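Replying to the earlier thread about multi-chain prediction with a worked example.

Input:
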Amino acid sequence: MAAARGQRGGDRDVPAAPNAAEVTMPIPPVSDTPMQRARAIPEAAVARLAVYLRVLSGMAEQGIVTLSSEELAAAAGVNSAKLRKDLSYIGSYGTRGVGYEVSVLVDQIERILGLTRSHSVAVVGIGNLGHALANYGGFPSRGFPVAALFDVDPDLVGVPVGGLPVSHIDDIPKVCAEREISIGVIATPPAAAQAVCDRLVAGGVASIVNFAPVVLQVPDHVEVRKVDLAVELQILSFHVARRADSMNVNGSALGNVDGVVIGR
Amino acid sequence: MAAARGQRGGDRDVPAAPNAAEVTMPIPPVSDTPMQRARAIPEAAVARLAVYLRVLSGMAEQGIVTLSSEELAAAAGVNSAKLRKDLSYIGSYGTRGVGYEVSVLVDQIERILGLTRSHSVAVVGIGNLGHALANYGGFPSRGFPVAALFDVDPDLVGVPVGGLPVSHIDDIPKVCAEREISIGVIATPPAAAQAVCDRLVAGGVASIVNFAPVVLQVPDHVEVRKVDLAVELQILSFHVARRADSMNVNGSALGNVDGVVIGR
DNA sequence: AGCCACTTGTGAACGAATGCACAAAGTGGC
DNA sequence: GCCACTTTGTGCATTCGTTCACAAGTGGCT
Ligand SMILES: NC(=O)c1ccc[n+]([C@@H]2O[C@H](COP(=O)([O-])OP(=O)(O)OC[C@H]3O[C@@H](n4cnc5c(N)ncnc54)[C@H](O)[C@@H]3O)[C@@H](O)[C@H]2O)c1
Ligand SMILES: NC(=O)c1ccc[n+]([C@@H]2O[C@H](COP(=O)([O-])OP(=O)(O)OC[C@H]3O[C@@H](n4cnc5c(N)ncnc54)[C@H](O)[C@@H]3O)[C@@H](O)[C@H]2O)c1
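Result:
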């Protein structure tokens, strides 16, 4: 199918500029370009900025005008040094001795995250999860209007869900282009996910959120974020097991091998 | 406890271990952390092991008995060196020149992830999302039986959802103890999440998955994993914006090399 | 003005995760 | 038994991310 990339043994051999996110040279040209925005923000920081934004929105609603990094950090569940460093990636908008103005931070984070314009979302697979997503009010209100729904089931096509009629997946490319969909959300059964993904890509969608528990193969210019609940549960399971292990200290050597294999 | 109100170097409220020596010492605090004996598996590797496990299960169903790190890595969407390193954290179960036996890896990963026993799950907030979760067959089949459902709505209490009757949130502590719930899933509106979380903790639940867009405050021994769709969308938005930016940059240095695509 | 208490922004130390490259260990052919 | 070939497991360099700790600003108070 798509993406023949990656099979070949040495496709990654080329040492040439893999991902030089930030090629900061030891001596940055002192003559800084005025509009030198977007200087590599660490991936992890971007995720946190989104969290700060939400916390700040809540603060704004409560009428809070100014706060310190310490306060915001506590509310966001991170330590204050990290918070300040994160904010420093987007500029210097604080006042020493005082703190930050909520509205300024909100504006700046929105700018950096590209939230000054809205991004239309398409949901594919209107089953249990798809219904929940289509009905969820939290996306439109945050600049992510759900502008298209798709399913393969003829009984669903044409039926309005959350006020929007479901289209057939064969129309994905056409509808996505028409409605300028920029983000596709896949909520189909795993077996259908790759095919759906391919269609979305064919329709010009370059950002995808995938709920189906499969690894999608996509061209390089497409970005996929997976939301995998089973993995989350298993990570928790791991920590539970780890915790239990460290309890019974002595016989820790790979305890039992009781072959109680679950399911499968 | 957190004590240390205040100034001196950041005090953190996060898990803590390294006691920051209060006095500023010219020399770094003597590195004393011998207790960290267990060769810990990197957090990031744990998440990937869960993915490998799923891919391997699929392989097993297809009757594949043996495979190489290269093959598994391709199927899991990672590079093979990383895959081998990840596997090396759990032991040496491969055969040089040959590869890995699928069934062995499945067993070992399940052992490490603590999947040799099942973990009962409780879902709180049986709305759109909660219904989807309660009806989802993917959890029970992977060793995470949904053993309790809770909601505050009197019209819902007693109604079976996915074959299991909904209980009232006031019974969280009691029911969780009775049914030995080990993982709680929060799918309530944001405003109710913290209160629900507190009850789960009171009921002895030490692992929580939170779908509500709020930062939960929990005691140290409780682990929370948040699933935040809005954040995912905003991260995608950020990359879209960034991509657009690098487009309209006049053909300066950035040009080709900047394959800044972080998420791959 | 001068002092002081407070808070930001950031260089630098530290630590975690990734990717490379190759010795070691195995298989199969002869 | 030896050689050619394959693939694992891991030491090492590198890159990415977090935390520390402090100079540099800011505003209030006397
Ligand atoms: N329900 C959950 O709580 C949950 C949790 C985690 C992951 N998931 C994953 O999310 C996905 C959806 O779960 P669900 O519970 O909503 O499943 P579901 O069976 O309720 O819904 C799937 C929907 O996809 C549609 N569909 C099937 N093939 C399709 C195709 N080729 N193109 C478009 N649509 C197609 C079906 O008609 C159906 O409406 C699954 O991959 C599941 O593993 C679900
Ligand atoms: N629906 C989605 O697709 C989606 C996506 C992302 C995040 N979320 C988040 O997930 C959560 C649930 O979303 P939803 O769409 O299912 O909402 P919903 O309104 O459909 O359901 C919420 C349910 O929680 C119950 N509830 C309210 N207060 C409660 C309390 N104190 N204790 C227990 N139950 C209580 C309500 O009775 C209702 O049944 C929300 O926080 C939402 O922001 C939902």
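The helical segments of chain A are 43-61, 69-76, 80-90, 102-112, 128-135, 172-178, 190-202, 229-247.

Feel free to reuse this layout for your own posts.
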